[in-house]
Design goal:
Layout lengths: L1 E6 L4 H15 L3 E9 L8 H18 L3 E8 L8 H15 L3 E5 L6 H13 L10 E5 L20 E4 L4 H8 L15 H14 L5 E9 L2
Parallel strand pairs: 1-2, 1-4, 2-3, 4-5
Antiparallel strand pairs: 5-7, 6-7
Length: about 220
Amino acid sequence: MKVLVISVHPDDETLGCGGTILKHSQNQDEIFWLIMTKPLESIGYSTEFIIKRKLQITNATKQYQFRDVFELNMITTKLHLVDFSEIIQKLSSIINKIKPEVLYMVNRSDIHTDHQVAAKAILSSTKSFNSSFIKKILMYECLSETEIAPPFTENIFLPNSYSNITEFIEKKIEIIKIYDNELQEFPFPRSENSIRALNRFRGSTVGVEYAEAFMLVRELF
């Protein structure tokens, strides 16, 4: 089975579905990673950060055993400034090249503007009449982006699909530590304690020790 995981920023994939990616890897599925943005010195990122980010991507790729990684190289935090048709064109090109059966994407109502623009573009790029090869699309939650969105009806993350990651929680925590610049001390959302707590809570919802939760966008079976 071909699986495509889309991150707007590296670390989204691990926060949202790291354990599930590891499960796909164990099942010997063909897993692909699409990263939409990159940091640049021109918007305030240091050379050291940019070099470190590249190493983090390389290390995460090895840990997950992605078959291939695609980078769209759009400027991080500036996705709203990119022509929307350009984003769709770039996404569609990769999606049609891979032809995944399962696709994981960021939540449409995350507080980060990059995530909102990306989610809208991904949904536009995966219309059923253009991508009938996709059998399932799942939105994942991303700590510090999903739960912090205003509690309006249209922003609520309502999980209706769960992945048991009890076997993979320790490896997921190990991988998130690759992104050490993103982690802070509890009670910051992106802390080891918070990640464990969320996955433990999602697990208790469905009767397992640890789980990742998703909103099902589309499924054909």
